[in-house]
Amino acid sequence: MSETSDSVTAHEGHGYVGHKEDLLKRLRRAEGQVRGVHRMVEEDQYCLDILTQVSAATKALERVALVLLDDHLSHCVATAAEEGGEVAAAKLQEASAAIARLVR
Amino acid sequence: MSETSDSVTAHEGHGYVGHKEDLLKRLRRAEGQVRGVHRMVEEDQYCLDILTQVSAATKALERVALVLLDDHLSHCVATAAEEGGEVAAAKLQEASAAIARLVR
Amino acid sequence: MSETSDSVTAHEGHGYVGHKEDLLKRLRRAEGQVRGVHRMVEEDQYCLDILTQVSAATKALERVALVLLDDHLSHCVATAAEEGGEVAAAKLQEASAAIARLVR
Amino acid sequence: MSETSDSVTAHEGHGYVGHKEDLLKRLRRAEGQVRGVHRMVEEDQYCLDILTQVSAATKALERVALVLLDDHLSHCVATAAEEGGEVAAAKLQEASAAIARLVR
Questions:
Q1: Quick one: which of C97, C91, C23 has its CA closest to C63?
Q2: How many degrees, rounded to 5, is the angle at CA B63 between CA B57 and CA B65?
Q3: Which of A52, B74, C28, D96 is 20 to 30 A from residue A71's alpha carbon, by CA?
Q4: Measured torsion, CA atoms of residues A19, A25, A26, A27, in degrees rounded to the nearest 10
Q5: How many other C-beta atoms are found inside a 10 Å radius of the C-beta of residue C43?
Q6: Which strand (E) or helix (H) includes residue A48?
Q7: Where does the UniProt annotation place the signal sequence (chains A, B, C, D) (predicted)?
Q8: Which residue of A12, A14, A45, A54 is the best one to mutate when testing the B interface, meaning the one whose CB has the most B CBs within 10 A?
Q9: Burial D42-62 (b: 16+ CB within 10 A, else e)
Q10: pLDDT for res B13
């Protein structure tokens, strides 16, 4: 994985490539937060303090999801829309389904 | 931390102690999912596939939050309510605030 | 309904009775907001302006849900917990299920 | 729809126009559900039964929001994207902000 990271060649068309370092940093932080929750449970800390930490991790992941979706709309979907036709319609359909899953 | 983990003595009053192994397993899985998202971003995978994985991690954390809250209500809050008075009222107030943060 | 409204006698044990006027006011406002959304769609207003109004109505209903849940915990559940036993456990179980539905 | 809908001509380009009757029907139902919640509070019904009804109304409004957003993406945003340039970028930015508010 080491040599592929920061190598944008493979899928350089992806919208989030410009935000890649930002996303990776957010994800490392989220991973640390989840590990923190694990440690708090292991140490039998107070339920509501753990809940606060769970909320922080969830919010961090929601932020990642919004950045990804934002990039997807302004890149993949916009590119497809310029081409128009069935591919564009399918891309928009796919993006809408992803938004619906996010909102629940 | 090593010697305290699985030692329930320290705070054995916490409601989630009975669910501790279940919670720790869920958290290890959530941590793995967040690490998976990190790898997908690093490998420039498709935005919406990454989003699906982010949603899985978020749902896993929400489930952890509900287990913690459930345990908190049926243990800490119930114990306080039996005693009644101001302590019980404060505990319920605190639990309500945690629920509000969870619902947003 | 006319003669029962504001007559708290029927179910005076309910926790929200103290917040009844506040809840009714919030619900009238939410109803007005939903009617506003209906009018905006009828008048073909701009999608995102309508979305903003939909969000306002949803937030108003979430606030109502939290007030109801809060009252339920601090009244019905607390009362059951004081009595203890199976009834209390069932009440807590029921409240937890309601919270899970709210969080989704 | 012809004479009632306060002049459909004005903004007939809006994406949701094709779903207008569906949206209006959903909104009438949501309004009825909110009115039902109001009546349940007035009649001092059981907190958790009211909560269930509040959830139904919230879900109905979320569905309306997703239809509006879907129509907005596949119509307004797609149209702007075909034209490209700053207008398209602004439209996508605006749509992303609306999604973020929806997800919270």
A1: C23
A2: 105
A3: A52
A4: 110
A5: 14
A6: helix A47-72
A7: none
A8: A54
A9: bebbebbebbebbbbbbbbbb
A10: 59
Output the pTM of the full model. Answer: 0.80
**Please, are residues B81 and C81 in contact by the beta-carbon 8 Å criterion?**
yes
A82–D77 CB contact, under 8 Å: no
Looking at the complex, does the CB of residue B64 fall below 8 Å from at least one CB of chain C? Answer: no
Is the pLDDT confidence value at C95 over 70? yes
Which SS3 state, helix, strand or coil, does residue B1 take?
coil
Measured in angstroms, the CA of B66 and the nearest CA of chain C are apart by 7
Contact D56, D76 (CB under 8 A): no
pLDDT in tens, A15-39: 777 789 999 999 999 999 999 999 9
Q: Given a cut of 60, is residue D86 above it in pLDDT? A: yes
The domains found in chain A, sorted by start residue, are: 17-103 (1.20.58.1000)
- Residue to mutate among B6, B39, B58, with most A CBs inside 10 A, is B58
d(CA C81, CA D51): 21
Chain-centroid distance of CA C63 in Å reads 7
Mean pLDDT in residue range B39-45: 95
